[in-house]
Amino acid sequence: MTAILPVATGRATARAFGRKLRRYPLLGLLAVLASVAASVFAVLVPILLGRIVDLVAARGSTGELLGIAAWTLVAGLAAALLTGAARWLVAEWGARASADLREEVLDHALRMDSARLEAAGAGDVASRVTDDVERVTDATQLAADVFGALVTVAITFAGFATLDWRIAVAFLVVFPVYAVSLRRFLPQAERRYAVERRAVAVQTRSLLSTFTGARTVHAYGMEDRQSARVEQASRGAVDARLDATRGFLWFSNVMNYAEALGLSAVLFSGFLLVRADASTVGEVTAAALLFHRLFGPLGMLLFSFNDVQSAGAALARLVGVADLELPARAGVGRFDVRPGVAVVATGIRHHYLDGPTVLHDVSVEIPAGRSLAVVGSSGAGKTTLAAILGGVFPSTGGEVRLGGRPIADLAPDELRRLVGVVTQEVHVFAGTLADDLRLAVPDASDTDLQAALKLAGADEWVAALPDGLATRIGDGEHPLSASQAQQLALARIALVDPPVVILDEASAEAGSAGARQLDQASAALIQDRTAIVVAHRLTQAQTCDRIAVMAHGRIVEIGTPAELIAAGGAYAELWAAWHR
Amino acid sequence: MAEATDGASRRLIRGMFRRQRRLVALTAGFWSMHQLCEALVPVAIGLVVDQAVGTGSTTAMAWSLLGIFGLFTALTMGWRTGLWFGTRAELEEAHELRMRVVRRVVTGRGIRTDRQTGELLSIATSDTAGAAELLELGSRVFSASIGLVVSTVVLVRIDWSLGIGLMIGVPILVLALNALGPLVERHTSAQQEALGQAAGTASDLLTGLRPLRGFGGVEEAARRYRSASRTSLKANVGAIKAGAAFVSVSTFTTGLLIAVVAALAGWFALRDRITIGELITIVGLAAFLTDPVLNLAHCVFRLATARAGAARVAEVLEAPERAGAGGTTAAAGPLALDDVHTAGLDGVSLVAGPGELVGVATSDIAAADAVTELLAGTRRPDRGAVTLGGTPLPELDVAALRRALLVEPHAVDLFGDTLRDALRTDDRQEDAALTRALTAASATELSDGGLDHELLDHGANLSGGQRQRVAVARALLADRPVMVFRDPTTAVDAVTEHAIAEGIREHRDGRATVLVTTSAPLLDRCDRVVFVDAGRVAGTGRHRDLLAVPAYADVVLR
C-alpha cells in the first residue's frame, strides 16, 4: 500500500477553514447581513401575495390591491439587489479564504519533510494543489448559494411565525425527518466521498505519469498498453463516483417525502384552524406558498449536496497538507558567512521511513576550501550522504556540522546561503531563463545572471537564444538539452555563491559530449569552496583533493587519488576498469 | 484559429450527445416528469385550499392528503431516476473524453501543443468533466422547458390573457438573460485560465522540488505561487461579481413577473373573472415559474464554463501531429543516415546493419542530440535522408516503425506499480525473458524480492542509476530488430557500466544496435565507432584504433 498524505477529519477541516474565514471579519459580517436582508425581502413576497388573497376574499378596493402589488414589486426589487450582493460577498469571502488556504498548502508541500513527500509521490501532492484546489475554488460560488439557501430556510421559518404560530409548529414535523436521515446519510457519505477522492488521486497520478512520459510511450508504440493503465484508473474514479451518487439518491428520496409531509401538515393544520375560525384562508395560502417557496432553497441544498460533499472532501485533503507538521525551522541568530566553512559529519546513520538502513555510521571531515569526491556503485548511499551533508533532509542519526555549527540549528535561509546542492534530477522551471535563475536569488541583477552563466559555461548559448535571458524555457517552451539544463543548475548555485557546494552527479546527465564542458563548469564552481562531488566519471574524482569510496552504506576507503591507486584497493580496481 | 476551434468544439459537443443519446433521453424524460409534478404542486395547493380548506369538508381533505403523497411520489421518482441516468451519462462521457485526450497525446508521435504537462492534466481532468456537464445541462434545459409549457397550459385554461402574456413574457426574459451570457462567459474563462496557470505553476514547482530545495529556492517558489494564486483570485472575484450581477438581474425579472401576474390575477378575482382557488393557483404558478426560468438562467451561466472546457478538450483532440507519417510498412533492415545536414550535423552518413553494434561518439552535444532526434523521427533533416531498410522514416507507417525500430529516450520514464509492470511493454513477454533482460542490464538486485517488487510513483524510490538500468532492461526486453540507445549509463558506476556493455552486446547479438555515447566501456564493445567532430565524420573504426585520433581520445577518455 502506497503511503499517502494525510486527510484531515471533518472537524479539523471545519476548524481550519473557519480560521481562514475569520481573517476577513468585515467581509464576513457584510456577507451575513446581506444574506439575511435578502432572505427577509424574499420571504416578504409570498406573505404579500397571501394579503392579496385575503383582500380579494374581503372584496377590497382596486386601490388597495395596487398598493399591495406595488409593495410586492419593491420587495422583489430589494430581494434581487440584496441577493446579488449577498452572493458576491459570500463568494468573495470564500474565495479569499480558499486562496489563503491553497497558498498555505503549496507552501507546506514545498517545505514538507522529504521522506514523506517521496513516499506519497509527487502525483498525490500535485493532485491536491491542482484538482482539489480547483474543486474548492469552484465551490465558492456554490457555497454562496448554499449559505443563501440556509438563511432563507431560517428566515422562512420566522415568516411562518408571523402568520400563525400553530402553522409554524405544524411545519416543524419535517425537522425530525431531516435530522434522522442526515444522521444516517452523512457518515456513509463522508466515507464514500473520501473513497472517491482517493480514486481521483490515483487517476491524476496515472495521467500525470502518462503525460510526462509521453515520449517513452511513443518510442515503444505502447499507446494501447498505457491507455489501458489510465483507463483502469479513470474507470475506478467513475465507479467510485457512481457509488457515492447511489447513496445520495436514497437520501434525496427521503427529503422529497419530508417535503410532502411538511406540506400536508401545513395544509391540514390550516384546514383545522380555518374550520375553527382561528385563521383565514389568506393566511393558510400564504403559509402554503411560503412552504412551497422553500422547495427551491431546499432542493438547491439537496442538489448541491453531491458537490458540497466532494468539495468538503477536497477541502479535507487540502487541510491535511496545510496541517502537516513541518520539519523544525530552528535557528534564528544571524550566521556570519565566512569564505571558509568546513564540513564535519560524525556517525551518520539513515533510513527512509520504515525502509532498511542505507547509511551506517559514516564519519567524514572536509576541511574548508577542500574537495572530496564520493564514488561507489549504484545504491551504495552516495546520494543519501550528499543530501544529508547538504541539509536537504536530516539524517536519522549522527550529526553534521558546518563551520562548527550543527546543521540542525541553522535556519533554512542561512543553510542555503552556506550550502548549494545540485541534485541528480534536473528541472527547467517554466518561465523566462532569467526567472529560472532568479528562483535562486530573486534580487539578482542581469549582470549577476550573466556572470553566473559565464561561470557555468552557458554564456555563449544563452546569448544565442532568440530572446537571450528573456527566452521562455520549460515545459512546452524553447527546448534545452540535458547539458544546457545542467549548466543552468550550476549557474543557479553560482548565483547563490555559497561557501560549500555539493554536486550530485552534476555531469552525469549530460552524458556524452557536453560532459567535458560541464566538468569545466563544475571545476570552476568548486574552486575556492568546500566541495563534495558525487562522481561517476573517475576523471572528475581524480581532480578532487580526496576520494571516498562507498559500498553498502559505508565509506570503505578514503584518501588522495594517488594514495588510493597506490593502495590497490577498491578504487584502484575501479580505476583499472575505467582505463581498460 | 478561434473559428477553427469553434467548429471543433461544436463537433465535439455533437459527438457527446450522439454517444450518450440513450442516457440523455432518459434523463430528460424523467426530469420532465419531475418538472411536470413540480408545476402541479401549486395547482394542487390551490385545489386543496379551494376544495378542502375553504369548504371544511373532511372527505375532501383526506383525498387532498392522499393526492399530495401520490404527486410527491411521482415527483421524487422522476428527479431521482433522472439524476441517476444523468450522472451516468456525464461520468461515462467524461471518461470517454479523457481517454480520447490520453490516446491523442500518446499515439504515434504525439501532438504539437504549447500546453504544459500541468495544463494537459487539467484538460484531461477538469475540462473533460466540465464538457460532460453539457449533457446534464441539455437535459435540464429540456425539462425546464417542459415545466414552462405545462404551467402555461394550466394558466391558459384558467384565463387565456394571462397565459398568452406569460407565453410572450417568459421567453423575452430568458432571452434578455441570455444576452448577459457573454459577459459571464468572458469572466468565467478568464477565471479558468488563471486557475489553470496557477495549477501549472504549482505542478512545475513540485516537479522540480528536489533541485529547488538544493539551491534554496523554496521561499521564492512559494512567493511565485502566491503571485499566481493572487492573479487567479482576482479573476475568480471578477467571475463572482459577474455571476452575482447575473443573479441580481434574473431574480429581479422573476420578481417583476410575479408582482405583475399577482396584481392582474387579483384584479380579475376582484371582478369575479376567476375564483379564489384559481387566484392561488395562478400566484403559486407564477412563483413556481421562477424555478424553471432561474433554472434556465443557471444553465446559461454554467454553459459558459462547460463550453470553455469543451473548447480546450477539442483543441487537444484536433491539435496537429508533431510529425506526419506515411503508409509504407516498415521492414527491418539497415538503419542509415545518408549525407544528413541539420543543426549540429554538416553532411554525416552512417549505417548500422543487422548483427552490427555501432557506436556514435560526438565531440559536442548538439551533434548527439541531432543524431538521436533524426533516428527517433522527431527531427527532419534539412538535406539528406534517414532511412530504415532503404525507406525514408517519414514515409513509414508509425505503428509498424515502432515494431521495427526503438529509440530509447535518454530521460527515463517508468510506468506501472511493479517492476514487472515497468519492464513489460507488451503482454507476451515471459518472466524468464524479463529476468534475462534484467541480468543483461546488471539490474538483478532489483528483482531479488521478485518481479512484483513495488515501484512508487514513477519509480521515484529508485536511484538514478537503477532507473537507467531498468530502462535498459525494458528496451532489451522489447527486443526490436533495430535499436538506438542514447547515453544509457550516465548514472551508473564504472564497474557496472562494463557489465552492462557486455550485457547489451550479448543480448543484441545478430540484431542492429546503435549506441550514441562517449562512454569508453560502451564504445569498446562496438563493432565499429563513428566519430563525429565539428559536424562531420572524423573517423570510423574500432574504439581502440580510434584512440590514436587525439580529438577522439579527448572526448572518450575522461
TrEMBL record, chain A:
- InterPro entries found in the cross-reference section: AAA+_ATPase, ABC1_TM_dom, ABC1_TM_sf, ABC_transporter-like_ATP-bd, P-loop_NTPase, Type_1_exporter
Residue intervals of the ABC transporter domain: 343-577
Membrane topology type: Multi-pass membrane protein
Q: Which UniProt keywords apply?
A: ATP-binding, Membrane, Nucleotide-binding, Transmembrane, Transmembrane helix
Q: Where in or outside the cell is it found? A: Cell membrane
Pfam families linked to this entry: ABC_membrane, ABC_tran
User: Has keyword ATP-binding?
Assistant: yes
The record, for PANTHER family, names: ATP-BINDING CASSETTE SUB-FAMILY B MEMBER 10, MITOCHONDRIAL, ATP-DEPENDENT PERMEASE MDL1, MITOCHONDRIAL
Put simply, this protein is called Multidrug ABC transporter permease
UniProtKB/TrEMBL annotation, chain B:
Q: Where is the ABC transporter domain?
A: 311-557
Query: PANTHER family this protein is in?
Result: ATP-BINDING CASSETTE SUB-FAMILY B MEMBER 10, MITOCHONDRIAL, ATP-DEPENDENT PERMEASE MDL1, MITOCHONDRIAL
Q: From the record, what ranges are coiled-coil?
A: none
Q: Know the name of this protein?
A: ABC transporter permease
Which keywords fit this entry according to its UniProt record? Membrane, Transmembrane, Transmembrane helix
Cytoplasm found in the keyword field: no
Topology in the lipid bilayer: Multi-pass membrane protein
The compartments listed are:
Cell membrane
Q: Which residues cross the membrane?
A: 23-48, 60-79, 141-158, 164-184, 244-270
- Superkingdom of origin: Bacteria
Q: Which residues form the ABC transmembrane type-1 domain?
A: 35-305
Entry's Pfam families?
ABC_membrane, ABC_tran
